[in-house]
């Protein structure tokens, strides 16, 4: 690079690293930049981190979940908000046997953000290495500084809404993908709790694939007993849309014969026939909280952000 631009290595370093407090003619600066462009030079993020002792990287650790509309939207909002503060987000999905420690040691992030709790040993090692750690959890009770997105509350909201509509025999349409168990099991637990609290029979549970045949088979099972199911709480909107298709295939009307409620309020929920009742999630508020928690962790004197109060609520439509 120095030979290409006809200046010293020191001058090249000053120009490419934006060194302040030195006087370099603009013509020389431009000659160095032109040489860098011709040679295809790209600054090394790792080297810059070593020099400055700081990184602009946030490592977001995503468990082995499917990437649906909610996670996709959350990551989009989170990345945009942190980019406005000069931070880049690297998303890592935990699959395979490679330990997390190998990754964070390789990329040297300033913050590691987990969308699920870290193993205690991993969290302790990151903090000992001087990396800020921000976590979230899917349960009601978490340790201080962790963002809670309690999935059981979703299930209770579904049952409460169905009971308000006069339904007593409720089914739960579970996802068939085992990777969603962390969410599905907790939401089902909320449905079970809601039924117990309201004096309703325990929910009848069936896994439903995202196809008409699977949903129709579940519907036949729900309707065959001595007390036919009259309402279905689905794991999410996609499963709920499958249930709507299964009901139509069996010649049943929604909500007259069987009501259906989903979760997430995806765009297709509003376009369904009938329009789908669902539990809305404040994805933008969740992303804003996580981004603010990252910024607060970087500014150790800052107070952690307040957790949003309205995380979930029912959006009532024609399907119930």
TrEMBL record:
Transmembrane segments: none annotated. It holds the Pfam family LacI. SMART domains: HTH_LACI. GO terms for molecular function: DNA-binding transcription factor activity; transcription cis-regulatory region binding. Keywords: DNA-binding, Transcription, Transcription regulation. It comes from the Bacteria. Residues 1-52 form the HTH lacI-type domain. This is LacI family transcriptional regulator. It comes from Cellulomonas xylanilytica.
């Amino acid at each position: 690079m120095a030979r290409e631009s006809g200046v010293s290595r020191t001058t090249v370093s000053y120009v490419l690293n934006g060194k302040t407090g030195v006087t370099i003619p603009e013509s020389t600066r431009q000659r160095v930049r032109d040489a860098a462009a011709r040679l295809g030079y790209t600054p090394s993020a790792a080297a810059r981190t070593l020099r400055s002792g700081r990184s602009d990287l946030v490592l977001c650790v995503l468990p082995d979940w499917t990437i649906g509309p909610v996670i996709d939207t959350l990551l989009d909002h989170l990345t945009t908000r942190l980019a406005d503060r000069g931070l880049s987000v690297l998303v890592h999905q935990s699959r395979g046997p490679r330990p997390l420690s190998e990754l964070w040691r390789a990329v040297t992030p300033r913050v590691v953000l987990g969308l699920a709790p870290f193993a205690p040993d991993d969290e302790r090692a990151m903090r000992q290495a001087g990396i800020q750690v921000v976590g979230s959890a899917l349960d009601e009770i978490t340790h201080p500084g962790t963002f809670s997105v309690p999935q059981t509350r979703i299930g209770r909201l579904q049952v409460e809404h169905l009971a308000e509509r006069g339904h007593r025999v409720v089914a739960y349409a579970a996802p068939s993908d085992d990777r969603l168990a962390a969410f599905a099991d907790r939401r089902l637990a909320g449905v079970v709790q809601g039924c117990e609290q309201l004096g309703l029979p325990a929910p009848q549970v069936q896994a439903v694939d995202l196809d008409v045949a699977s949903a129709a088979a579940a519907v036949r099972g729900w309707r065959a007993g001595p007390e036919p199911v009259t309402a279905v709480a689905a794991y999410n909107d996609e499963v709920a849309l499958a249930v709507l298709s299964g009901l139509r295939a069996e010649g049943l009307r929604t909500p007259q014969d069987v009501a259906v409620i989903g979760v997430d309020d995806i765009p297709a929920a509003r376009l369904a026939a009938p329009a789908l009742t669902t539990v809305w999630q404040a994805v933008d508020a969740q992303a804003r909280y996580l981004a603010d928690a990252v910024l607060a962790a970087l500014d150790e004197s800052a107070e952690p952000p307040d957790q949003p109060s309205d995380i979930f609520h029912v959006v009532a439509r024609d399907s119930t």
